[in-house]
Write a structure and sequence with these properties.
Aspartate Aminotransferase, domain 2, globular, alpha/beta, four-stranded mixed beta sheet, seven-stranded mixed beta sheet, Aspartate Aminotransferase, domain 1, about 450 residues
Length: about 450
């Protein structure tokens, strides 16, 4: 499918002279020309089925007509005026829409930003302001962004920390409740919760005063850790602990929200009303927009100019977001994600029966991670995972790895059943080729993947 990528290669070579290597995780040397629904087309005319959705930033698919129309119409009316000084119609409507769409019955307020990173910075600001406490707790394996505040919350890659310290003080990390590990998966849920809650108890016993802790910041389903859901009882116990000790329960829905998991928000799987929630990526179908949505009294703890940006809440981005939310609701994309996700999981489970290098399958909806392991050692096998996704790409399926050897499965929620079936067939074929020893190490050139 992608044997001819001459134009792409020339453009990549040209761009690499001018683009910082810090800003891209390399997988495939192609340059995209256009996209439609769940399909991508490169400058050489090759077609790809997209299983990445621009890192879950295009849940409504590429160039959805309703979103495109909203962008075009708003561009004719007002390209930009900063809400930092003057209101505009799309911003007013979107703030109300998001406040009402957030989980729980408590009154909510909203502040806009440009990316999930600055929205997670806002969590630190508002949590400290509201509680009057300095310490923030996050999780090992979390990814919250690349600004100094959000990267201080993150703990997923040393590439986000080398040569850049010291990072923001007062932030501590505990292990994410990842049950998909040998020896832990076999435990009962109660045993799993006890296992992962022990480091939290020890932290508060020995080096972090619980009464000086402002918030826990967490992904209900950890995206870059491998799309890993935590046990229900764990978040329930942590939420109750937070309520008991006056600690805010703040969630990151940037990757996992907006229908991705089969529900509107990933926290909906746990029946918990968070104190603070951040959204980004698919909130405007990939346009630069983010938001922090929190209980009104928390948002009222700061006044201007504590958290504002000149281009945040841009009229075009807000119009795109309003259209995006309409598409998610009108086309029942959360329900569609749940339905097609069940079908996809059945296919992956069938592959697991055939291929002894598939370890765990985890996630919800059209939102899964498939861990590739060495069958003998049971350890993650990064090279084999890269071979599978690289071969799939050659066959016209755009898919990548995360967390060393986890195949990242996050197609646009508008993907057709035919496209989904075709993409899964390709992955099956590539796994068979790996099993048959047909995928050599030469398939992977240079530094690839995380």
């Amino acid at each position: 499918m992608s044997e001819n990528i001459e134009n792409s290669k020339k453009m990549v070579e040209r761009e690499l002279q001018f683009y910082s290597k810090s800003s891209r995780v390399s997988y495939y040397d192609i340059v995209l020309d256009r996209g439609e629904g769940a399909l991508l087309y490169d400058v050489d005319g090759n077609e790809y089925i997209d299983l990445l959705a621009s890192a879950s930033a295009t849940n409504t698919g590429h160039c959805h007509p309703k979103v495109v129309k909203a962008i075009q119409e708003q561009a004719d009316m007002l390209v930009h005026y900063t809400p930092a000084y003057i209101w505009h119609t799309p911003e007013v409507e979107l703030a109300e829409k998001l406040a009402k769409l957030a989980p729980g019955d408590s009154p909510k307020k909203v502040a806009f930003g440009n990316s999930g990173s600055d929205a997670n910075d806002a969590v630190i600001k508002f949590a400290r302001a509201y509680t009057g406490r300095p310490y923030i707790i996050s999780f090992i394996g979390s990814y919250h962004g690349s600004t100094y505040g959000s990267m201080s919350l993150s703990a997923i890659s040393l590439g986000m920390r080398r040569k850049m310290g010291p990072l923001l003080p007062g932030i501590y990390h505990v292990p994410y409740p990842n049950i998909y590990q040998e020896g832990i998966y076999e435990m009962s849920e109660e045993e799993q919760v006890e296992h992962f809650f022990k480091p939290i108890e020890e932290m508060f016993k020995y080096y972090v005063p619980v009464k000086e802790t402002a918030a826990f910041v967490l992904e209900p389903i950890a995206g870059d850790l491998g799309i890993v859901p935590a046990p229900k009882l764990f978040w329930k116990k942590l939420h109750e602990f937070c309520q008991e000790h006056g600690i805010l329960f703040a969630i990151d829905e940037v990757n996992q929200g907006l229908g991705r998991t089969g529900k509107m928000w990933s926290i909906d799987h746990y029946d918990i009303e968070p104190d603070i929630m951040v959204v980004g990526k698919s909130i405007a179908s990939g346009m630069p927009l983010s938001a922090i949505i929190a209980k009104a009294e928390i948002m009222d703890s700061l006044s201007a100019p504590a958290h504002l940006f000149t281009t945040a809440g841009n009229p075009i981005c807000c119009a795109a977001s309003l259209a995006t939310l309409e598409v998610i609701e009108e086309e029942h994309l959360a329900e569609r994600s749940e339905k097609l996700g069940k079908n996809a999981r059945e296919r992956f489970e069938a592959m697991k029966e055939k291929y002894n290098f598939i370890g765990f399958i985890h996630g919800a909806g059209l939102n899964m991670g498939v861990t590739i392991i060495d069958p003998e050692t049971k350890q993650k096998d990064q090279m084999s995972a890269l071979k599978i996704v690289t071969r799939a790409f050659q066959k016209g399926v755009c898919v990548i790895t995360i967390a060393e050897s986890v195949i990242r499965f996050q197609p646009p929620l508008v993907i057709t059943e035919e496209q989904l079936d075709k993409a899964l067939n390709v992955l099956d074929e590539c796994m068979q080729e790996l099993l048959d020893g047909k995928l050599s190490d030469d398939l992977i050139s240079g530094e690839r993947g995380w």
